[in-house]
Structures are given as C-alpha cells and as structure tokens.
Amino acid sequence: MGETVVAQQTLKIEDQTETNEQEVKLTKELMTKHPLQNKWALWFFKNDKTKTWAANLRLITKFDSVEDFWSIYNHIQLPSKLGLGCDYSLFKDGIEPMWEDEGNRFGGRWLVNLSKSQRTSELDRLWLEVLLCLIGESFGEDSDQVNGAVVNIRPKGDKLAVWTGFADRQESVLKIGRQFKERLTLPPKFPIVYEKHMDTASKTGSQTKSKFTI
After folding, report:
1. Contact 158, 123 (CB under 8 A)
2. Phi and psi (nearest 5°) for 170?
3. Sign of CA dihedral 37, 72, 93, 46
4. 3-state class of 213 per DSSP?
5. What's the CA angle centered on 107, arms 164 and 201, to 5 degrees?
6. What integer pLDDT is reported at residue 14 of this predicted model?
7. Residue 152 phi, psi (nearest 5)
8. pTM reported for the whole predicted model
9. Concatenated DSSP letters for 122-166?
10. How far apart are CA 75 and CA 180, in angstroms?
11. What is the 3-state secondary structure (H, E, C) of 66-115?
C-alpha cells in the first residue's frame, strides 16, 4: 500500500516536472525575437522653415527584429496623417537618408508619384508594402544594394521611393524596379522612374531627368 502511494507521488512529480519544462520551453520560444538580416533606422523629417534641412531630420529609432518593427510601426502615425512637407525614411543602419551620404552618393531612387486622392486610399498600404520589402530582403541578391526608402508628403501629391547604392549597375537597378512595381501591385501603365542622385543634385529646373522608366 505504501509503495503504491510513493509510486503515485513519484508520477505526479514527474508529470509536474515535465509540465514545468514545457512551460519554460514555450516561454523561451515566445520571448525569442526573429532577427532581421540587417539593422534598420527609422527617420522623420518635419518641414520647419525656421530650421536647416539637417536640423529638421530626426532619428526616431533603430531595430533589428520582426517584433520590434511591428511594435514601432503600430505606435507611430501613418503617412497619410502626417503634415505637408513631412517625410518618413527607413534606411540600413549607418546610411543617412540624404543623397550626400557616402552610401547613397553614387546611387539613385525608384520614384512613385501619387495623386492627392491616393493619400487616403492607397498611401498607407503602399508604404507598408515598401517597408516589408526592405526588412524582408525581397529584392533577392540585389537587396545588398537597396539602401532604404522614403515617403514624402507633399501638397501636389505624395512620393514613394526606394534608394539604391549604385545607379550604374543597370541590370540590378532594373530588377529592383520591376520587383518594386510588382510588390506595390501598380497597373502596367502606371510609370515609375529611376533618377540618379547626381542628376538630382545638379538639376537646373524643377524636374530631374529620369534614367529608366518602367
């Protein structure tokens, strides 16, 4: 009789130990973050005309996991709610969202021009898709030369852009552009253009000559 009681108690202890081990394992799995291939920096630009351009640019935060990305995304304003003249930029850590940065200087950007009406209907969806493309390394072997992305909120219409590091790598640039347009599910007749930063810097009028159009 005594042996039966001891055996039952031993089984209970073993069951409890196994349950505790499973709970610890599950807790560890829940606490484990999913790392991204790159560390990213989120920037915000506020158009305050009393300050210099550089002074208006602020680093919001950096992140390197899927969970941290969603935590940040869910706690900041959507692009459609930003004031006119404001920007969000997401760039690989170590590269600042300006064409003068050494990582951007010889590159360019794929540019999507949106109408004012698309701010309420499309902008937020498109920007989120751009962000997911970046952190998910969706450009395959060409992801290494994708430096970041920018959304500009402007009176005449907003802009979305993906920046690359080297404008003269034509095949790579075109592959990135095609993937960019496909992921945004833009109609075939909706053009996106590629502009070299050096051309933008040296332009004399309001328009920059595009290098490629898709």
Report:
1. yes
2. -55, -50
3. positive
4. strand
5. 130
6. 56
7. -110, 130
8. 0.83
9. THHHHHHHHHHHHHTTTTGGGGGGEEEEEEE--TT--EEEEEES-
10. 26
11. HHHHHHHHCCCCCHHHCCCCCEEEEEECCCCCCCCCCCCCCCEEEEEECC
pLDDT given for residue 136 in this prediction: 97
94: left (phi > 0), else alpha (psi -120 to 50), else beta? left
Residue 67 has pLDDT above 80, yes or no: yes
d(CA 51, CA 64): 31
Instruction: Name 161's bridge partners.
Output: 111, 150
Q: Please tell me the distance from the alpha carbon of residue 130 to that of residue 125, in angstroms, as a whole number.
A: 9
Q: Which run of H or of E encompasses 183?
A: helix 170-183
Place of tokens 């907003």: 158
Q: What percent of the chain has pLDDT over 70?
A: 82
pLDDT: which is higher, 74 or 6: 74
Residue 32 gets which letter from DSSP? -
Burial class (CB within 10 angstroms; exposed 0-12, middle 13-18, buried 19+) of 17 = exposed
In the DSSP assignment, the letter for residue 210 is P
Does the pLDDT of residue 143 top 90, yes or no?
yes
Element (H, E) at 198: helix 197-202
> Which one-letter amino acid corresponds to residue 23?
E
User: Which element (helix H / strand E) includes 193?
Assistant: strand 193-196
DSSP-assigned beta bridge partners for residue 45? 57, 87
Would you place residue 201 in the very low, low, confident or very high pLDDT band (cuts 50, 70, 90)?
confident
- Could you give the CA distance from residue 181 to residue 146 in angstroms, rounded to a whole number? 15
